[in-house]
């Protein structure tokens, strides 16, 4: 299927046509310049990268970025690098690194190509970054500034006025080099000095007013230990990481648009100095994903977890990739979603129903069908013993999938006692209600037609049993079964062979479309009814359901056997624990 074009595809197609990057060499080892020079032509036509900071679990916004970067590489004969952006000397948590790798793999992508595993850590390039900084000093393009942070802020100016040169801006190259080395050697305290690029203090783009490129931070780094007490700023590190990895198209979110001139300035300088090979990578920006009824900020997601508003990063209500997975989203549905929302250069909010629509479209042709009764009440067939014999169970069957007969049939038993949905009985019946009420006939799907005779209620007036009589010769699939016409068709599960299960009905996590956008804190906008747990009955084929398997429960929507808590024991004695999460209903209900 031809994918719809977008501005990024156009850029890439033009670069491929013009051979912009066709002369590049690939040494197989990013950052190793000697190796690089001896390398052969790059086997990858384009290189993109996905550069997460390993400080939390990825969310649906990251999924968009993953699908975009890995998807473009795949479509154009390229490679996408996975790069852990760990230039901040913070403790890297292996848990996050592992979860990020898992998420990318689960989404169906690979960072292995042409025999190379493209899994990198930005901190591996610290030596090169340091050399690049010294080069800028030597070229008269950087200086050590010792103004206080406050002076620096004031002297940077703002949109209404140009900045003011720092008194340290005119230092000699020798002095700068010596001072920078003192910074490196730990002679200065945190915050005592920074290295700044020397560009233009009057630039209308504030980011070009001599941005800071190195700062002092006496902190241990998980990868480089205590080797460094100065660390590169993100805006300096990122273009270098891209260049060393031979990235061609560096795709980021819109908030980095104002950084693009510095990205180019820096790589142009390093190219002049022969530190990197031309042509250097280019940065392109697209609009980040904002999805209604959820939050997509690692900080806020962490707060939900830390304060116990959800059960963890993988709570099925979380928009994290682990949460969506546990909720029942499939990799295919997330890729379809990413494709449908496309990429644009304008920020917007995507309706949550778009995500659910992609899931339904993915699962409808795939998911096995099953009957489940979520809010059960007993239906007793009062003439069963007389017609069929006491204790008789009548085998019934239904296709695993209505459009795929080759997938076979599910089997279950019809008997004297059945579970039906509580609201399938109404007395008196509201207008247009064709299900159970005294005197009405309905078909129990894949079973028989029954005629309702009445119901029993407990002392509080709560319905506890519905009674009906079987209409003989109406078994589905037998000759003449359709002779008795009915308007209602309901689902059921046999009391004899039904499996007790816990069903978790999830609703939107927040009760407003843009949590935290107004006056209130986002936490005050949590939906208190985002989880409803029911004790349900499911048909016996569900004994074999394994964690992570998706189903369509007829009339109810799409469900998944919970990856973590569902435990099926079809072959063994003893009961398993059956837990199903509702992913989404059968129809869009967000407009309610
Ligand atoms: P957050 O703001 O949630 O902490 P981040 O941008 O700081 O996210 P990173 O780990 O730095 O998280 O992100 C890795 C990549 O994912 C970046 O290239 C970033 O552009 C992209 N990304 C992050 N959030 C979104 C989003 N909502 N939509 C699209 N891409 C995103
Ligand atoms: Mg970030
Ligand atoms: Mg961020």
From TrEMBL:
Residue intervals of the Glutamyl/glutaminyl-tRNA synthetase class Ib catalytic domain: 45-352
Residues covered by the tRNA synthetases class I (E and Q) anti-codon binding domain: 490-562
Positions contributing to ATP binding: 53-55, 253, 288-289
Top-level enzyme category: ligase
Positions of the Glutamyl/glutaminyl-tRNA synthetase class Ib anti-codon binding domain: 367-470
Binding site for L-glutamine: 85, 234
EC number, UniProt record: 6.1.1.18
Region listing for Disordered, in residue ranges: 14-49
Gene Ontology BP term (one): glutaminyl-tRNA aminoacylation
InterPro entries: aa-tRNA-synth_I_CS, Gln-tRNA-synth, Gln/Glu-tRNA_Ligase, Gln_tRNA_ligase_bac, Glu/Gln-tRNA-synth, Glu/Gln-tRNA-synth_Ib_cat-dom, Glu/Gln-tRNA-synth_Ib_codon-bd, Rbsml_bL25/Gln-tRNA_synth_N
GO terms under cellular component: cytosol
Principal localisation: cytoplasm
GO molecular function: ATP binding; glutamine-tRNA ligase activity
Keyword Methyltransferase tagged: no
Swiss-Prot/TrEMBL catalytic activity: tRNA(Gln) + L-glutamine + ATP = L-glutaminyl-tRNA(Gln) + AMP + diphosphate
Family of this protein: Belongs to the class-I aminoacyl-tRNA synthetase family.
Protein name, as recorded: Glutamine--tRNA ligase
Organism per entry: Ramlibacter albus
Gene name in the database record: glnS
């Amino acid at each position: 299927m031809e994918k719809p074009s977008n501005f990024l595809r156009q850029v890439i197609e033009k670069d491929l046509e013009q051979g912009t990057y066709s002369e590049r060499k690939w040494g197989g080892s990013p950052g190793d310049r000697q190796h690089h020079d001896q390398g052969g032509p790059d086997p990858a036509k384009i290189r993109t990268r996905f550069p997460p900071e390993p400080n939390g679990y990825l969310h649906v916004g990251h999924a968009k970025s993953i699908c975009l970067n890995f998807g473009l590489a795949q479509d154009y004969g390229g490679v996408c690098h996975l790069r852990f952006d760990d230039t901040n000397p913070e403790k890297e948590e292996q848990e996050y690194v592992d979860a990020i790798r898992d998420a990318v793999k689960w989404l169906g992508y690979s960072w292995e190509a042409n025999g190379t595993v493209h899994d990198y850590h930005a901190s591996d390039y610290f030596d090169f970054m340091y050399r690049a900084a010294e080069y800028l000093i030597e070229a008269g393009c950087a200086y050590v500034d010792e103004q206080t942070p406050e002076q620096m802020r004031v002297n940077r100016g703002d949109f209404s006025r140009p900045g003011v040169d720092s008194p340290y801006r005119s230092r000699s190259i020798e002095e700068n080099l010596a001072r920078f080395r003192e910074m490196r050697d730990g002679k200065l305290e945190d915050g005592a000095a920074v290295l700044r690029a020397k560009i233009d203090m009057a630039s209308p783009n504030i980011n070009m007013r001599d941005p800071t490129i190195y700062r002092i931070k006496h902190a241990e780094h998980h990868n480089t230990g205590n080797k460094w007490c100065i660390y590169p700023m993100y805006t300096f590190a990122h273009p270098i990481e891209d260049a060393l990895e031979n990235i061609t198209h560096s795709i980021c979110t819109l908030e980095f648009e104002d950084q693009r001139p510095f990205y180019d300035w820096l790589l142009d300088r390093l190219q002049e100095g022969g530190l990197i090979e031309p042509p250097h990578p280019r940065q392109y920006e697209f609009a980040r994903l904002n999805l209604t009824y959820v939050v997509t900020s690692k900080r806020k997601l962490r707060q939900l977890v830390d304060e116990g508003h959800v059960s963890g990063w993988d709570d099925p209500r979380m928009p994290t990739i682990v949460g969506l997975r546990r909720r029942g989203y499939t990799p295919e549905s997330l890729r379809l979603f990413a494709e449908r929302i496309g990429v644009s250069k304008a920020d917007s909010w995507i309706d949550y129903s778009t995500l659910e629509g992609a899931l339904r479209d993915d699962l409808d042709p795939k998911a096995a069908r099953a009957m489940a009764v979520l809010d059960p009440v007993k239906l007793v067939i009062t003439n069963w013993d007389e017609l069929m014999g006491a204790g008789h169970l009548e085998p019934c069957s239904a296709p695993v999938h209505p459009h795929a007969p080759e997938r076979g049939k599910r089997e279950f038993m019809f008997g004297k006692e059945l579970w039906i949905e509580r609201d399938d009985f109404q007395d008196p019946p509201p207008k247009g209600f064709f299900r159970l009420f005294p005197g009405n006939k309905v078909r129990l799907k894949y079973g028989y037609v029954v005629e309702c005779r009445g119901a029993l209620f407990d002392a509080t007036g709560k319905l506890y049993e519905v009674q009906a009589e079987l209409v003989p010769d109406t078994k589905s699939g037998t000759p003449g079964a359709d002779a008795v016409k009915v308007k209602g068709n309901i689902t059921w599960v046999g009391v004899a062979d039904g499996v007790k299960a816990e069903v978790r009905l999830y609703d939107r996590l927040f009760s407003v479309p843009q949590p935290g956008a107004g006056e209130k804190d986002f936490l005050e906008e949590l939906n208190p009814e985002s989880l409803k747990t029911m004790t349900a009955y499911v048909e016996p084929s569900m004994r074999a359901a394994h964690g992570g398997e998706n189903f369509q429960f007829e009339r109810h929507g799409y469900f998944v056997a919970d990856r973590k808590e569902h435990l099926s024991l079809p072959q063994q004695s003893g009961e398993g624990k059956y837990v199903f999460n509702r992913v989404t209903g059968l129809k869009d209900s967000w407009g309610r």
